[in-house]
Amino acid sequence: MDNVLLITGSSGIAEATALLAGREGCRVFIAGLDEPQCRDLNARIEGSGYFAGDLREAEAAEGAVRGCLKQFGCLDAVFNVAGTSGRRFGDGPVHECTVDGWEQTLAANARPTFLMCRAAVRHWLEAGRGGAILNMASVLAFSPEPGHFATHAYAASKGAIISMSRAMAAHYAPKGIRVNVIAPALVNTPMSARAQADETIVEFTRQKQPLSGGFLEPEDVARTALFLLSAHSRHVTGQVVAVDGGWSVTG
After folding, report:
1. Rounded to 5 degrees, what are φ and ψ at 52?
2. Residue 242's pLDDT is what?
3. What is residue 140's DSSP assignment?
4. C-beta separation of 26 from 48 below 8 A
């Protein structure tokens, strides 16, 4: 792989994908909120670059694309990973979810994805070339779990990403712009720390994700992500690919 890949986020799946992409010959550009994390990850990938900013803001999303273009002169693919759980904002079952929890969860997940997609697509249309976008969803968007993971704003934010991505895929395919979605189940990342510390959830995950025998590792998702971002998947668009260890087909 010799393409320029912009990845949003600097930990978990974003980190694993950036490191794997670097090892496989991609030129990697990292964009995220945590400047020290972005800088440290950048230092671990030869020839990479980074941009630190709040991707919930249009100027930051556009700045990330400009930064990538300034460093590498082109942009081939974007992997939108940046996002978060909404529990600390007040997310939960809809009858308990606060208005602030709803708004902040959608702002943290759907808004940066929209803004990054917009910035990348505008560049490709202006340049008269194609590109690939992979957006991060979750199995909770289409395979809910009512007990341990009743976070309805989070599910809605990931469902919005799926709907937007499929609409984009249909609209921009004639321009050579592909848009796909990856939907992991429980992955061993900083965002799942609460679940990892709960033995009941750990045991539940062993049963719900039988192929993994528990939590997936970030690299498990990264390998599928790189395929969907590369020319190897040049005929694939508008798809939602679950990397879930069997979650969505297990009772």
Report:
1. -110, 125
2. 98
3. G
4. no
CB atoms within 10 A of CB 100: 12
* pTM over the 0.85 mark: yes
Q: Is 4 helix (H, G, I), strand (E, B) or coil?
A: strand
Point out the catalytic residue in the list 102, 154, 215, 247: 154
Q: Does residue 50 carry a catalytic annotation?
A: no
Q: Identity (one letter) of the amino acid at 49?
A: G
Annotated domain spans of the chain: 4-249
| Residue linked to tokens 């992979």 | 134
| 16's tokens | 């694993």
CA dist list (Å): 57 to 64, 121, 134, 191, 197: 11, 17, 20, 22, 33
Inter-CA distances, 16 with 12, 82, 149, Å = 6, 13, 24
Dist. CA 10–CA 32, nearest whole Å: 6
> Which CATH superfamily, name and number, covers 4-249?
NAD(P)-binding Rossmann-like Domain (3.40.50.720)
Quick one: tokens of 87? 């529990």
- Cα-Cα-Cα-Cα dihedral sign, residues 197, 198, 201, 206: positive
Amino acid letter, 117: C
Instruction: Give the C-alpha distances (Å, rounded to integers) separating 239 from 124, 140, 155, 233.
Output: 21, 16, 18, 11
The answer to whether the beta carbons of residues 223 and 79 sit under 8 Å apart is no
Per cent of the chain over pLDDT 90 is: 94
**CA 224 from centre of chain:** 12
Cβ-in-10-Å burial (0-12, 13-18, 19+) of 5 comes to buried
Dump pLDDT digits (tens) for 91-104.
999 999 999 999 99
Q: Is the pLDDT of residue 1 over 70?
A: no
